[in-house]
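From the shared-data thread, chain only:
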Amino acid sequence: MTHSLPLFTITSIHKPEGYVILELSLLLKDVPGAIYSASNVIKSYNGDIKWGVTHESDKPGLAWWCAFLLVKEDLVDVMIDSLRKLDVVSELNYTIHKDKIIITKHHDSIICLGGRAILFRTEWLKHIHAAVGKTWGKEGAKALAYVVGVDIGKAAHESHVGFVGDLKEELLNFLLDMMKGCGWISGGSWEKDGDKYIIRLNDLFECEVAGESHLVRGELAGYVTAIRGRDYKATEVKCRARGDEHCEFIVEPVERVL
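Structure, as tokens:
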């Protein structure tokens, strides 16, 4: 069952009396059972793993396992000593967090497909949208967002071809999966009608922020333009912000006037 994914690098965990929140980063041998061995040690001290992730390291044969856990304050030192003694542990770092909002101390950037990624809360984007509208006017802000979106779509297509190959129209599936993985939508689908594409997006963030889509509308136009090798435009015909079940876009060729 699909569900919301809390952000690992910034989170909030309820702390019972007598417990501390421990951020733990273990550089483990990349072998089966390594995490199992570490988690068994944590379990033996009644540690409660609340949130964790494993990811590659820059050292061959080793991988990071990073977690937030609850452990009794008087057991932290002895549990850490036991973890250090495991033969699968190459390096161990830990931090005790005392604040209600927990922000990682062990990670300095977010990486997505080999490049740096950044995150914006939708509340921040609302302020950006309002500031652009105040500066350029409502219609100017719409036009600017659309033009920027077109360039983003073309650049995204080039990047995606580099990742998965030139799958032509099937790249639209990858685009929708990427949008979902980045939190832009909760799901989406597309179908083709001649040279026209009908693209449906669920819970599109932009419509939550701005009440309609222009940036993503432009991105869809730019993406299909890159796929087809001719200019396409996108029109939003349904919008969640207007009470529709989903946002729907018609992406069709630009008719040239001779």
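The chain has a mean pLDDT of 94.
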